Amino acid sequence: MKSTLNIGGIPAFELAQQFGTPLYVYDQALIAQAQEEWKNALSMHPNHRLCYAVKANGSLKLLHYLAQAGLHFDIVSGGELARLVKVGVGGERVVFSGVGKSIAEIEMALSIGVSCFNIESVAEMDRLSDIGKAHGCKVPVAVRVNPEIDAKTHPYISTGLTENKFGLTINHLREQAARLADDPWLNWLGLDCHIGSNMHDPAPYGLAAKTLFDLLDEFTAKGIALHHLDFGGGIGVRYRPEDSRPLLKPFLQPILERAKNYPHLTIMFEPGRRLVAEAGFLLTQVEMIKTTPSHRFVVVDASMTELLRPALYQAFHEIVPAWQADESLPSEPCEVVGPVCESADFLGKQRTLAVQAGDGVAIKTAGAYGMVMASNYNARPRPAEVWIENGKPRLIRERENYDQLFRDEHF
Ligand SMILES: *Cc1c(COP(=O)(O)O)cnc(C)c1O
Known about the structure:
By secondary structure, the protein is an alpha/beta fold. It has helices at about 10-20, 30-40, 60-70, 80-85, 105-110, 120-135, 170-180, 200-220, 250-260, 275, 310-315, 400-405; strands at about 1-5, 5, 10, 25, 50-55, 70-75, 95, 115-120, 140-145, 170, 185-190, 230, 265-270, 280-290, 295-300, 320-325, 330-335, 345-355, 360-365, 385-390, 390-395. The strands form 3 sheets. Strands 1, 4, 14, 15, 16, 17, 18, 19, 20 and 21 form a 10-stranded mixed sheet that branches. Strands 5-6-7-8-9-11-12-13 form an 8-stranded parallel β-barrel, surrounded by 4 helices. A two-stranded antiparallel sheet has the order 2-3. A hairpin with an 8-residue loop joins strand 17 and strand 18 (about 345-355). Helix 2 (about 30-40) packs parallel to helix 9 and helix 8 runs parallel beside helix 9 (about 250-260). The protein is elongated. Bound molecules: pyridoxal-5'-phosphate. Pyridoxal-5'-phosphate binds next to helix 10.
């Protein structure tokens, strides 16, 4: 077998032989690079915080690495908080987002000293205030603003519209401002927003940021002093080779310019995808080629249970040969599919690949929203994960075995 792809300097076939397939592989150097890009982009406003969105990829090794690198974290569940605690992250480095935080999750987060709860509704405001009262402490909060940015002008965004379940609309927030500021059990620290994911157009992002700054000015004029603005995540990456890679600068520059007038303001960002997507690869072996009168199916040993994004929202991931027995094979149009019994189980449609059974392919840009969405559907054990640092691969998650599939069941 000849490897046609190296990851972190290691031939893909060596990784497959040593660890088996399907296999998630992360290249630490690429994560470091993404992080450096953020650091450089934000250097002109030292008072910033980068809160990695744990939901994009919660592998302990990754969290530990990012914690060592000094990042903060954005979570959406008690389980994500437990993961952070496991790798030694203190609550002061955590913000808690999400529309349905349970009482148990809030109490757990309070006991660990989470730095801020991003409030999504008036009902949640009441819940947090009640819990603060019961525990005799002021709960640190920010309010998520739904800026109601018109989808017609900006089709990429999907969580910042009136019909979405996230955040408070601007007018709703205005109605609640006095109550929030006066609530004895809430410590109102800031405003946040997150208007959508994988954004390539900086315009709506800039509009949302402007909304937050304008509201900050408005509340300051009313004597309400806020400590931070959190602009959420959502900056996209390149999935299709023909697309251009969004630059951070057009997204961040307008915010940094305006932030110059607020030297004491902490500005926060919650990138998920833009920190880890590009560092991840899913290696999978071709089981067989199936030809029908209309199609050539490349059946691989990965499926929607390893990478759900194509089945879930027809996401595109570039698929490239990773190792081949015969490099002279002709490229042919094909569909790349997995073994799961669902028509939605595809990894790539209308591709062109020169592969045969036993060859391997790599599904690229799989570091975010990949392993975290892996499931045991069709009783498939979840894949192993490998981390490459300085040219050395290390297993960071064992491949699940059959015993683990049913070890928690009773009959
Ligand atoms: C999902 C999410 C993020 C991260 O989004 P990316 O598109 O991966 O950057 C950040 N903040 C909140 C509140 C989210 O729900």
